[in-house]
Amino acid sequence: MEQKISELRQKASEAIKNAATNLKELDNIRVKILGKKGELTSILRGMSQLSAEDRPRIGKIVNEARAQIEALIAEKNDELKTKELSNKLASEKIDVTLPGRKINAGHLHPLTLTLNRIKEIFLQMGYTIEEGPEVETDYYNFEALNLPKDHPARDMQDSFYITEDILVRTQTSPVQARTMESHEPNSPIRMIAPGRVYRRDDYDASHSPMFTQVEGLVIDKGIRFSDLKGTLEHLLKEIFGKNAKARLRPSFFPFTEPSTEVDVSCMMCHGNDANCKVCHGSGWLEILGAGMVHPDVLKMSGYDPKVVSGFAFGMGVERIAMLSYGIDDLRLFYDNDVRFLQQFK
Amino acid sequence: MQVSTKWLKDYMKIDISPEELAEKLTMAGIPVENVVRADEGLEKVVTGKIEKLEAHPDSDHLQVCQMNVGTNELLQIVTGAPNVKQGQIVPVALVGAHLPNGQKISKGKLRGVASNGMLCSADELKLDIENLPVEQKVGIYILPEDTPIGVPAKEVLGLDDVILEFELTANRGDCFSVFGIVREAAVLTNQTPNLPKIEVKEDDESKATDLIKIKIDAPDLCSRFSSRVLKNVKLGPSPAWIQQRLQGAGIRAINNVVDVTNFVMVELGQPMHAYDYDEVKGHILNARRAVEGEQLHTLDDSNRLAKGGELVIADAEKAAGLAGVMGGFETEITEKTKTVVLEAASFNGASIRRTSRAVGLHSEASGRFERGVDETKTIRALDRAAQLLQDMSACTVCKGIVDVYPNPKSEVTVAFTPEQINQRLGTEIETDKMIDILQKLGFEIVSKTPSAIKVKVPSWRNDVSMMEDISEEVARICGYDNIPSTLPVGVTSQGHQSDVQNFVDRIKSVLVTLGMNEELSFSFTNPTMFDKMNVPADSELRKAVPIMNPLTDDYPLLRTTLLASIMENAARNYSRKNEDVKLFEIAPVFSPKALPITEQPIETLKLAGLIMGRREDKGWSQNSDEVDFYDMKGIVEELFDRISIDKYTVEVSEHFAMHPGKTAAFKKGKDVLATVGEIHPAVANSFNISKKIYVFEADIKTLLKYTAKNFKYEQLPKYPAITRDLAILVDKNIAAGEVKKIITQNAGGYFKDVTLFDVYTGEHISDDKKSLAFTIKFQSTNRTLTDEEADEAFTKILAAVKKQFNAELRS
Fold this sequence. Notes:
The complex is a heterodimer. By secondary structure, chain A is α+β, with helices and mostly antiparallel strands. Chain A contains twelve helices and nine strands. Chain A has helices spanning 2-19, 23-34, 39-45, 54-91, 110-124, 138-141, 174-182, 225-240, 295-300, 317-325, 332-335, 338-341; strands spanning 128-129, 135-137, 166-168, 189-198, 210-220, 246-253, 256-265, 284-293, 309-316. Chain A has a seven-stranded mixed sheet with strand order 1-4-5-9-8-7-6, sandwiched between helices. A two-stranded antiparallel sheet of chain A has the order 2-3. Chain A starts with a helix and ends with a helix. In chain B, 40% of the residues are buried. Chain B folds into six domains: 2-38 and 162-189, Phenylalanyl-tRNA Synthetase, Chain B, domain 1 (2-Layer Sandwich); 45-156, CATH 2.40.50.140; 208-404, 3-Layer(bba) Sandwich (Phenylalanyl-tRNA Synthetase, Chain B, domain 3), CATH 3.50.40.10; 413-478, Phenylalanyl-tRNA Synthetase, Chain B, domain 1 (2-Layer Sandwich); 499-706, Bira Bifunctional Protein, Domain 2 (BirA Bifunctional Protein, domain 2), CATH 3.30.930.10; 722-809, Ferrodoxin-fold anticodon-binding domain (Alpha-Beta Plaits, 2-Layer Sandwich), CATH 3.30.70. In chain B, a hairpin with a 6-residue loop joins strand 4 and strand 5. Chain B is built from 22 helices and 39 strands. Chain B is α+β, with helices and mostly antiparallel strands. The chains are: A alpha+beta, B alpha+beta. The interface between A and B is large, with 89 and 100 residues.
C-alpha cells in the first residue's frame, strides 16, 4: 500500500512538472489523481480494508501525499498563469509610434494673446481696464486731447469721418477723457484702455486701416516723468524678457508735455547685426509713445494740474505681437487663415 | 526737411561725425531719419582732361583717350561715348573705383587696346540729370572748361557733402531752418554758432513806399506782410555755392532771384516770394480771402477755382497767388523782370494747411507756415535776400521797407521754480544748470528770485508757454537717459476689469476649448455683402453707418452683422483649400440711431461662430465625418452650460441667410439667446463655397443678462436612481424637443432627467413614422424609490405622449 502511494506520488510529481504545459492539462492531472475517481481517492477508498492499527498511519501518508500533490498543482498553476498572462500581453503588443488621437481644441487670436499678456501686467500693477465707444465725437477723439481743428498734428492720424463731428476713433485715448470725466475731480486714476482704432492708412505689411491699441493713464498727486520711465521699462521687460532695454527719445504729442517716443532694444540682433532685417542695424525698435499729461488735457476733464499730475502712454498691439512672434506682415492678423491662427498658444 | 552738413559747418564748428551729430539731435527731440552721404562711390573718381583722342584701330565706335588726371603720366582709357572731344574735362573713374551705380572699375582691354579706367556719365555718378541738356544726359558728363584737373570729382560736383534728413515734429517750426538746427546742434555739442552778418546797403534812390502798397484785409490769416523792392534786376544763374547748398537741401536751382528766396527760406526758416513788380497791377499787394468761384491762375499755369475763404495775395485786379502755397502765373519772375517785390510774411498755419490739402500741394513753404514762422523776423529775411542778390551784383535795393504788422506779437514770459521742474521730471537738476540750458537755447532770464525764475521765451519758440514746456527743454537737453526710473507711489489700487470684459474672456476660453479658433476682422463692410448674405431689402441691417471718406470702395460702411465677416473669412480659407474651418469672433456691430447720422451709432457686442468641413482632424484613427447642424448646436449648448445659462427653449426659427429647415433659436421667453443654423446653399454659393456651413450668432449683453451670477454645487445622490426606457413611434414631423417637453411636464415629483438615446426611421417602421427612445430617470433625495413608484410615473408619461402625439409604445 505504502509502496503504491509512494509510486503515485512520484508519478504525480513528474506528471505535474513535465506533462502540464497549460492549465487545462494541469486540471486533468488533478482530476486523474485527486478527483472523485482519481487514483489517490481510490487508494483512500481501499483503506476500509486495512487493519485498525494500519489505518491511521496509512491515512496520514495518504493525506501527506495529497497535500504535497495539491501544493505541486498550486505551484504549477501559478507558474502557468504567469506564463499565460505574459503570453497574452505579448500578443497585445501595439505600435506605440502611431500618433495619439487628436483633441481638437481651438486657439485664441495672437492679438488676443498679446493683449491678455499686457492686461495681466497692468492688472498686477493695480490698473483698471476701461473701454469706450469705437465711433467717437471729434471732441473726445481730438479736442479733449488738446488737438483743436486744423492742428498740424492731426495729420499724424488721418481719420475716417462719419460726419464733420463724428468719426471712428483714431486712438483709444478718448476713453481716458471719458474716464477722467466719470471720476471725482483730482481723484487718482490708473487705467489702460485697449481696443480697436482706425486710421486712413493703406493696407500693407506694416499698416492697416484698423488696428489695436492700448493706451494707459496714471493720475495722482506727485506723478513724475521718472515714474513713466520706470513703468514702461517694467512693461518692456515683462513682454520682451529681462534683457530688454528701453530708450526714450524726446518727441511731440499735443496731449503730453514732455513727450517721448520709446524704443526697445532689438530682440533679434541685440544691436549686433548691421544688416538686421528687424531693426535695420540701429539696434532699436520704436514701440510706443508717451509723456506727462498736458495740463490742458487735465483741465478739460475737470482735473487741476496744480494739484495732480499724470502720465499717459500708447502702444500698438500688432507691433508688439509682430516683434514677439517674429511676424513680418501685419495683414496676417486680419487674414484669418486657420493655418496661421492655429499656431498660437 | 533736409540740410547739408556743409551748410551747418558754414555757421558752426562740427568736430564729430555726421552720424554722431544725428544721434545727438535725435536724442534731443530733433529727429534725424537718415544720414545720406552724397559722395558714396566717388572715392576714386577724379577730374581729367582729354589730351588726345584717337579712333580705336579695331572698332567703329570706340575711341582711345589719353587722359591727364594730374599725374605725371597720361592714362589711356577706351570709351564708347560719342560726345567726347579733345580738350574736354570729364569725370574719370580710376581703377579700383566702385561707382554709385554698383559698377566696379578694373584694368582691362577693349578689343585689344588697354583701358585703365572709365569716363563717367551723369547717370553713372547718380547725379540729378533732370535739368541737364540731352547730350549730357546720355553721354559723358562734360565739366566746365575752368575745372581744375586731377582733383576729386566730388569736390567739383559739390558732392563732398553729408545730408541730414530730418523728420521734425509738428511743434518745432523753429528747426525748419539751418539757423534753427545750428542753434540746437551748438547747444548739444558745446559750440558757439558763428552766424553770418546780415546787412544790406540801400543803394537805390527810389523809396519802396513810393513803389508798392501792401494791405492786409484778412489780419486773422495774415499777421504780418513785409516787403522790399529791388531794381535793376539781372536774372541769371546763382553762384555755384548757392546752387550746391540748395542741392543739399533737395531744392533745384532755377535762377538767382528764386534761388535766393529759397536759400533764405532754408537758412532762416522764413518762406519768401518774389513778384515781378511790373506785372503787379496797381502796384498793390493785398492779403485777403478769396471769393467763392474766383479764378486763380497759378504759376504751374493751371486755372483753379477758389472754394472761397482761402488766403490769397491779390493785386488791384485779381489774385496773384495762393498765399504760402503757390504763386501766381502772371507775376512770376521771368527773363523780362526788371524790378522785384520781395515778400516775407506770416500766414495762419491752419488756413495754409486747409488750402494746401485742398489743392493737394505741400511745399517747403506751406510746411513751414503750417508749423508757424517767427513773425518778428520777416525783415531779417528781406535783408538777407537783398544782401545775397546785391553781393552777386544782381540788383539795387530801394530805400526802406513796406511793413504791415497790425498786431505785433507780445513777448511771452514763463515763471517757474526749479523744484517744479524737478518734481515733474523726478530729477535733481541744479538751478544753474537749468538756467544755462535755457540761456543757450535763447531764453532770457528776466528775473530770478528764490520763489521763481521768470524767463522770456525766444520769438521763434511758439511751442513754449508754460512751466511744463520749460521742463521738457531742460529734460531733453539733459537727456532723457539721465532721468532716473521710478514707479508711482501713492494709494495702491485694485486692478480689475468690467463684468462684460470678464464675460467675454470667459466665452472665448470656452469656445477655444470646444475647438473654435478666434478670428479678428475689420469693422468695415460694403453693400454687396448684404446681397451676398441675402439680407432682405427692407432689413434694418442694410441701414449701415456710411464713412464719408472711405479708403477704397471696398469698405464704405460700418458693419451691421458679424456673420458676413465670418463668411468672408470662411470663403478666404476655402479658396486656399483650408476646408476644415472652425471660427468665432466677438466684436461690435454698428446701427445708426437715424440716417443721415446725427449722433454716435449704437454699438452692440456680438458673438458669431462658424464650422465647416471635417468634425475631427484627418488622422489614422480619427472620425472622418463632416460636421452637421448638431455639431454647431452642441457647441452652443456646451457654451451655454459653461457660462451658466440654462432652462432655455430651442425652437424652430428662420433667418435670411440660413436653410429654412435647419434653423433654430435658443430662447428665454421672448429673448433670443442665439440663432443656429446651416447657411443657405444660395448664400454659400455667393461666397463660392460648395460645402455645408453651420453658424450661430448671439448677443453678448443678452447672454450676460441670463448667465447665473452664482453657482452652487448639487449634492451627490445618497439613494439610487431608477430608470425606465420609453420607446415610442410618432409621426415623422413631430419635433423630439416637443416630446421631451411633454415627458418632463408629466413625469411627476421624482423625475430626475430624460435623455433621448435613439432616433430611428427605416425598416420595420412605416414611412411616415419615426421611433424615439428615451431613458427617464427617477430619484428621491431622501429614500430609495420603489419599482411601483417608477412604474406609476412611467404610466402617466406614456398616457400623456399617447394623448399628445398619438404615440404608440414600441415593444
